Every structure is written in C-alpha cells, then in structure tokens.
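Example for tutorial group B:
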C-alpha cells in the first residue's frame, strides 16, 4: 500500500467517531487546528450538560445559532502542532452529556451550540487565564438552561439578548463560585415576558440601566431586579467574585 493511500485511510478514520449512538465528526483542518461537530436528534425535553475543563491560557467563545438539529460545533486551535488525542479529549455519554477537556494548552476554543435544546454549561475551576465570551442569541432556549463559570484569571463577557426563548422556567447564571475572573462584563436585554435578577460583587460599574431597580445590599454585594411581584420566568445572575464588574442593563 502506498504512503498516500495509508494517509488517506488515516484521515477517513479520523473523521467519524461513534460515541453513545452519536456520530461525532472530527475534521483536522491543519496540524494545529481541528473542527468537531455533532447533530442533535433528541426530543428537546432534557437539557444537555456541557462541561469544559482543563483550559489554560485560552480564548473561549460560546455562541448559539438558530439550528435545532445542531448539538455542537467546536473549533480548536492549538499553540503548536499536535495530534488531537494528545491535545484534548471530547466525550459524549449515553445521556448526551458532553465533556471537553484540554490536555495541552489550547490557544482558542470556539463553541457553537444549537437551538433545539437547552444547555447546562459548566466551566470548571481547573481552567485558568481564560478570556471567555458567551453570547445568548438566535432563539437559544433559556428555560432550564444554566451557566456556572469558575475559571480564574483574565475576563468573562456575558451577553443575554431579547432573542432568547423562555417558557415558564427560568435560567440560572453564576460566576465565581470556586474561582474568579479578573474582570466581568454583563450585557442584558431581556425578552418580552422575562424578568431579571442580578447580584453583583463590588466594585461595580453600571454603565447603563433601563428598568432594573436596586433592591438590596449586604457587605460587598448588591442586588438589582426588574419585576419583583411576578418574577417567572426569571433570568437570575449572580457574579459572586470578580475584581471588577461592568454592567449594561436593559429590561
């Protein structure tokens, strides 16, 4: 068998990995960048748990597109050329719980999720020096979704838009439960019929505020919310720890 044929077969074998009945497409785009994707074929009832860990010195971007058939697309860029199994590990269990673990330092990680199911995202405290951006838009399901961010260092930027879809269940967001970023940025523009509650760690800089009212303060935390009488569905945000918090609030 020629060297060219052996290389061709190796590439084909790298393209499809079957895990828990889910076909994962792995496309090596270069010696230091990879694309992974999988379709979503569930009923949309049970949220998908998405766990990110082992990210060091990484630019992390998480966004959503209006595609109910997409479970995820992941683009990985490494600092240097390495085979995928040496650089990161991606596993999907029988419940479609996803775990991405960086083994070597990853330069950038671009995660794109679909609109057919809600996601419970966890960024673990084993992640450090991460510049993270999360944008919730394009008919992403907010009901029963959550985001818990515990990476340390650098910054996190959160954007929640009026394009989010809620039923009668809200969403919980927390930053700094086990670790803290240097800076946290929050932009909110609530969808119709959705209320908001946010607790911030001081020092806090509010750059704009429409419809959010100061409710309470205790020690170095302050709480703002929209309608306190009929709070559901509720987007509840808690930035527990950060060296600086900057917010733009719109109901």
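The residue assignment follows.
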């Amino acid at each position: 068998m020629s060297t060219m044929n052996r290389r061709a077969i190796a590439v084909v074998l790298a393209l499809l990995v079957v895990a828990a009945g889910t076909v994962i497409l792995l496309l090596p785009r270069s010696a230091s960048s990879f694309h992974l994707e999988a379709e979503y074929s569930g009923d949309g009832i049970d949220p998908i748990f998405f766990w990110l860990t082992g990210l060091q010195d990484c630019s992390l971007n998480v966004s959503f597109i209006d595609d109910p058939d997409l479970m995820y697309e992941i683009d990985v860029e490494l600092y240097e050329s390495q085979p995928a199994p040496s650089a990161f590990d991606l596993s999907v269990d029988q419940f479609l719980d996803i775990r991405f673990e960086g083994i070597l330092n990853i330069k950038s990680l671009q995660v794109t999720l679909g609109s057919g199911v809600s996601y419970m995202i966890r960024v673990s405290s084993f992640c450090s020096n991460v510049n993270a951006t999360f944008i919730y838009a394009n008919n992403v399901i907010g009901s029963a979704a959550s985001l818990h961010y515990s990476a340390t260092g650098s910054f996190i930027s959160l954007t929640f838009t009026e394009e989010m879809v809620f039923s009668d269940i809200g969403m919980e967001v927390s930053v700094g439960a086990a670790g803290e970023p240097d800076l946290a940025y929050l932009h909110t523009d609530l969808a119709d019929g959705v209320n908001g509650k946010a607790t911030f760690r001081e020092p806090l800089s509010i750059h704009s505020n429409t419809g959010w009212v100061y409710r309470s303060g205790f020690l170095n935390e302050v709480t703002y919310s929209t309608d306190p009488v009929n709070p559901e569905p509720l987007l509840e945000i808690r930035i527990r720890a950060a060296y600086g918090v900057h917010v733009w609030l719109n109901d």
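Residues 30-250 form one domain. Compare this with the pattern of hydrophobic and polar residues in the output above.
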